[in-house]
Amino acid sequence: MAHPLVLEFLTAIKEAVFNQTLDVCSRWAVARRVMPDGEPYSLDDYPYAEAILNSRAQKNWVMKCAQIGLTEAAITIATFEVDYHQRDVIYFFPTGKMAERFSKTRFDPAYNFSPYLKSVVEKSLELKTIGNASIHVLGANSEANLRGTSAGRLFFDELDAWTERQIYMAEQRAAGQKNNDKIVWGFSTPRFPNCGIHKQFLQSTQEHYFFDCPHCKENIELLWEDSFVPCGDSVDDPRVHDSYIQCPRCKQKLDHETKKDWLRSKTRGGTGEWKATNPNADPRLARGFWISQLYSPTVQPWELAVGYLRGCGDEAARREFHNSMMGLPYIEDAHKVQDMHIDACVKKFAIRRTPVHVNEGIFTLGVDQGGPVHHWCAVQWLFDAKRVGDPNDRAIGRVVGCGRILQDNWAEVHGLMRQYAIRRCVIDYFPEPTNARVFARTFGGAVYLCQYVKGAAAREVRLTEDDYGANLCRVDKVSWLSKSLGRIINGDIELPLDLPLEFRQHVKAPVRTLKERDGQYVAEYVDTGPDHYANALAYAEIALKILDPALHSASIITKTR
Ligand SMILES: [Zn+2]
Asked: For residue 46, how far is its CA from the centre of ligand 1 (angstroms)?
């Protein structure tokens, strides 16, 4: 039996040696972090994460997709800096709310699962302290947070939601460190090219993850166009489950089930490694890593196929596919209806002159007020049972009538309400709210005045009343014009043979572009001529949205047709 003092000495040596081996973040992670399933953090599951954990470049930019395990990597690095290096860390989020949520739902559970971290971390909402060093979890939307605490280690989360000024101010928090010893990490899903994380990535080493194909042994990387074989024609097609990842060289299938094996890193006996694609960047100064869900151990190939197919018909879903699944920035094409789009929508029917029966389905009316004439557009809506989403996503429109009415002739608008058995009508509020309001009140709940507002979320409709008790809806113009003009571009609307030439001209007039506002890109329409029919069509679309609860009866009507 050894003397207790000797035992104590031996234990101390053992711990000191153990601690020494933890000087690299990836080894520290395996020893100190425990995942929710009770197992130690594993580099086998995320072979691409090791190099990111261990990078000591001054700036590290990770342009990533969702569900790739790299949020855990960010938590791991931040905690390693505090625990092992005893350096203060500021972990910035775009807003205080996001910081608070992340602190509660990601940091705290991460520490509670690990017996070691649970015993050493002192937790509060804004501070995670180990010994003499802390992680400050802060929102970058507060001037005080941007000016207060300083630290040599900075983390920027969701960089694409940041303004240029916030980034600049936050970087100043690392100024004045001894020996200029500062390290910055940014983890974000990109949004638009050349801003946010993508802008930083472009100035970095731009590293991609390469590995040897298990079949042909060529050194390859996974890129969507060459490496993915989507199957099926729509998201509901059972064949999407046959979709798979392939080697871009030999075209053989790369099994999802053995992904860990063929992606295994060189440091762990495999062939995987990050390779710089930008020879001009100094890896000591700025490293950048890009990774897509093709590499994700959890996202199945069929899920990628669904994301891709969804994006084929819907602009918002296309952005989601590029940003969150491929980890790539995305910019919409300048969007404009062209004659070929209109021609493809024209079907063999004429503008309806005879009255519609109530049981013929759902009809809505959009009226664009103007002087000296109003433009109107009546749309019949048919529902496709195979489609998913809200009524507007599921509906196919048919323009059954459109035309002009003299400004003061509201009686004629009354006539349209009856002729087309209109369920809901939307009229713009300006330029003449008074008569429109009188008209709206006459038809009780069936007529809404519409105001375009900024700041409404995409395709959100806020229903309210104006000061005189008329029904009012407030909507985002860009989202609704995109939806209704997108119908013509995508062939989701049928147009009559005798479509007025003016209708053609008006729907071709709005051109969709992107404009920078406070460092963020936002879509907007630029008018290249009168666009009254385009607005009337959008109002008829909004009218359908207002009818939302009636969707159920609508589908029954469609079935009986
Ligand atoms: Zn191959």
From this structure: 22
Is 206 strand, coil or helix?
coil
Weakest mean pLDDT among 38-52, 353-367, 440-454: 440-454
CA dihedral 268, 269, 271, 274 (to 10 degrees): 20
Q: How far is the CA of 48 from the centre of ligand 1 (A)?
A: 20
Residues β-bridged to residue 210? 273
Question: Hunting for tokens 């995409």 — which residue is that?
Answer: 458
Amino acid sitting at position 426: V
CB 231 within 8 A of CB 240: yes
Q: How far is the CA of 210 from the centre of ligand 1 (A)?
A: 12
CA angle 128, 130, 132 (to 5 degrees): 110
- Triad 203, 208, 213: Cα angle to 5°: 165
356 pLDDT more than 80: yes
Residue 521: predicted pLDDT: 64
In this structure, what token pair is assigned to residue 5? 């003092």
Report the distance separating Cα 247 and Cα 221, nearest Å.
8
What separation in Å is there between the alpha carbon of 218 and the centre of ligand 1? 6
CB 296 within 8 A of CB 71: no
Domains of the chain with bracketed CATH? 48-325 (3.40.50.300), 339-559 (3.30.420.240)
Amino acid at 130: I
Q: How many CA atoms, within 13 angstroms, populate the side-chain half-sphere of residue 234? A: 7
Average pLDDT score, the chain: 89
The structure's pTM equals: 0.66
User: Among 8-12, 95-99, 481-485, whose mean pLDDT is lowest?
Assistant: 8-12
Q: Give the distance (Å) from ligand 1 centre to CA of residue 261.
A: 15
pLDDT at site 454:
72
